[in-house]
Amino acid sequence: MFGYRVPAPDEAMLISGGRRGLGGAPFRVVTGHGKFVLPVFRKTRFLTLSMCEAEVTETCVTRQGIALHVRAVIAFKVGNDHESIINAGQRFLSDQDQMSVLTGRIFAGHLRAIIGSMTVEEIVTERQKLAAEVLDTSKVEMAKIGLIVDSLQIQSIDDGEVGYIEAMSAPHKAAIHRQAQIAQAQATQASVEAEQVAARNQAEYARQTAVVKAEYSAEVDRAQAKASQAGPLAQAHAQQEVLAAQTELAQRQAQLRQQQLVAEIVKPAEAEAQRIKLLAIAEAERMKIQAEAAASYDRVALDRMIIDQLPQIVKEAAGGLAGANVNVLNGADGLGEIAAGLVSQGLTILDSVRQNLSGQDSGDSRRPEPGNASALLQLRAGEDKTKNGAKDKTKKTDDGRVDVD
């Protein structure tokens, strides 16, 4: 757009010709964004903020008076703050290449001053300390001109043809050579010793090999002689071993056959016997249960038969009173008492029959037949009838009861 200016990411835009900048600067500083600039009334310039490099090659004299050629590289740039940009813009805006020249001169002066206070040994062995001291001493001056230093590297240190640095390294080189020679001698000695050990081992191996060969030959000779002499004995031993093997095989076959017979005959027979035994026990148990059931049935049948004969017993007992002279004095109550007496007499006869049957069961293991029980009941009834027929008469007492003489 017309009149709108934007600086690059590594540039600072300086606008002059209007109101003054911060801190009374003769221009305004714009970084990171654009700005409208009137073409006629305002002037715009750009200051680089990118990294710059300055190289210093300087001859410096140490504290010992030895001249050293030192080469160093400085990496620097304009600071990012507005104050640094203003300071650098006022000094280098028209000729920005002068930043590297001025930086080199500043570091060269500080480098000479610091090396002059150090020895060659310190400079050679402590380069990082030298660089840090140079940076510290130059930091203030660089800030005044708006520059900051990122790094300082000492590239090389040389004393020319003086040979002081080389002389410094001579003892170390000599020690290194000496150590190398010692190491070489030790390696050579170790090699010779290894060769000697290998030779001794080879000789020992040859001797042991000869001994082994001799012992082997002697053993072979003895074995051949023993084999030629012990042919029949070896054959006999072989036959004996064959017979022993055959015997063992026959025993194993017999054991196997015995196991087969046990599995095929004995075990089935034992199983069959066990089955028959269990069936017999079950049959006996069944018969026992049936016998107990039959006995219980007979007892119930006998009791039922006796109960069925009770009316006949009472009837026979009543028949015994048919020819008796009985006078009933108290009417219906008297007849009730006579009937109750007849029933009581019948129950007494029934109880007696049951006790007699129980006595027969305890004295004889055989059970009575239903016919025998009936005959016994008839016999008891006849006896009761005879007793009733023998009674003469009954007479009435004063209290209304009937007495039978």
Average pLDDT over all residues? 77
Largest sheet: 3 strands, antiparallel
What is the strand tally? 10
Task: Label the structural class.
Answer: alpha+beta
Beta content: 5-15%
Poorly predicted parts: 362-405
Q: Strand order, biggest sheet? A: 3-2-5
Question: Which series of helices and strands comes N to C?
Answer: EEEEEEEHHHHEHHHHEE
Q: Which outline best applies? A: elongated
Gap between N and C termini: 171 Å
Helix content: 55-70%
User: DSSP helix count?
Assistant: 8
Whole-angstrom Rg = 76 Å
Task: Characterise this structure.
Helices cover 64% and strands 15% of the residues. The chain is α+β, with helices and mostly antiparallel strands. The chain has a 3-stranded antiparallel β-sheet with strand order 3-2-5, covered by helices on one side. Strands 6-7-8 form a 3-stranded antiparallel β-sheet.
